[in-house]
DNA sequence: GGCCAGGTGTAAA
DNA sequence: TTTACACATGGC
């Protein structure tokens, strides 16, 4: 089964997702950290709090007291560590000179990964959705869905899976953007609990007949 | 009340 | 090199 065929089916079913849901690249970056192992609804509330407090700003976050920042982002969960992570990221962001500076780095991915609290998924989300760089984002949904489809091993590492996608797909920011968003849309709205939904857009592609998530 | 959510870092096996 | 656990809120 071709990865592009799967993409087409998901796109036909769910339509364009218009990711990342944010008003600026900087907001995308904060959201990428805040959404770590957290429901997006909870992240929206946190970002809304930051906006209301006029704190959606790298210098203000970098200078903000940790406890105060934690209160603003409380709804996103893990707020103590996320407050530290946001501050550390913002210091880095300022040192680079903002998005443009970040993008101009020799290896922006390595630079992001060097920060405490930014792992491969968060780094890649920032690269793809904030900086428009063509890297394919892998998450828990991607792992599960494609393992169930029999296209990858259940214990494939992040980079193995990423290489698999990037080797088979044209290196296109627009495609990578939409594909990952569609995987999340599919995982959220489909086949979560029931063994197999009769109207699953990937029906017939799944040799195991197992649910695509969970 | 239990499970899960657009992960990451650390420590033990 | 793998596996277990902490981190925490809110929706269903």
Describe this structure in words.
With 214 residues, this protein is mainly alpha-helical. It is built from twelve helices and no strands. The protein is globular, with a radius of gyration of 18 Å. It binds a DNA duplex (13 and 12 nucleotides) through helix 2, helix 3, helix 6, helix 9 and helix 12.
Topology:
Blueprint: H1 3-14, H2 25-34, H3 40-52, H4 58-63, H5 66-72, H6 79-96, H7 98-104, H8 108-113, H9 120-129, H10 140-148, H11 158-168, H12 173-189
This protein binds a DNA duplex (13 and 12 nucleotides) through α2, α3, α6, α9 and α12.
What ranges have pLDDT less than 50 throughout 5 or more consecutive residues?
none
First and last CA, distance: 22 Å
Order of helices and strands: HHHHHHHHHHHH
Count of DSSP H/I helices: 12
How large, in whole angstroms, is the Cα Rg? 18 Å
Q: Let me know the average pLDDT.
A: 92
Class from secondary-structure proportions = mainly alpha
- Helix percent reads 55-70%
Give a short summary of the structure.
With 214 residues, this protein is mostly helical. The protein has twelve helices and no strands. The protein binds a DNA duplex (13 and 12 nucleotides) through residues 31-33, 35-43, 45, 74-82, 85, 116-122, 125, 137, 139-141, 180-181, 183-184, 187-188, 214.
Keywords:
single chain, mainly alpha, 12 helices, 59% helix, globular, DNA-binding
């Amino acid at each position: 089964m071709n990865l592009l065929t799967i993409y087409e089916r998901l796109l036909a079913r769910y339509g364009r997702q218009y990711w990342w849901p944010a008003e600026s690249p900087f907001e995308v970056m904060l959201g990428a950290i805040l959404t770590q192992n957290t429901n997006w609804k909870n992240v929206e509330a946190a970002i809304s709090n930051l906006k209301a407090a006029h704190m959606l700003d790298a210098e203000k976050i970098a200078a903000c007291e940790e406890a105060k920042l934690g209160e603003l982002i409380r709804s996103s969960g893990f707020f103590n560590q996320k407050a530290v992570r946001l501050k550390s990221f913002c210091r880095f962001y300022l040192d680079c000179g903002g998005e443009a500076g970040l993008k101009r780095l020799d290896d922006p991915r390595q630079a992001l990964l060097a920060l405490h609290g930014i792992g491969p998924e968060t780094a890649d989300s920032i690269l793809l959705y904030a900086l428009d760089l063509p890297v394919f984002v892998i998450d828990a949904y991607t792992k599960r869905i494609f393992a169930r489809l029999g296209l990858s091993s259940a214990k494939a590492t992040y980079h193995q899976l990423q290489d698999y996608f990037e080797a088979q797909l044209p290196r296109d920011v627009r495609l990578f953007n939409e594909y990952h968003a569609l995987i999340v849309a599919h995982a959220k709205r489909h086949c979560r609990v029931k063994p197999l939904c009769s109207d699953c857009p990937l029906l017939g592609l799944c040799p195991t007949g197992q649910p695509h998530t969970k």
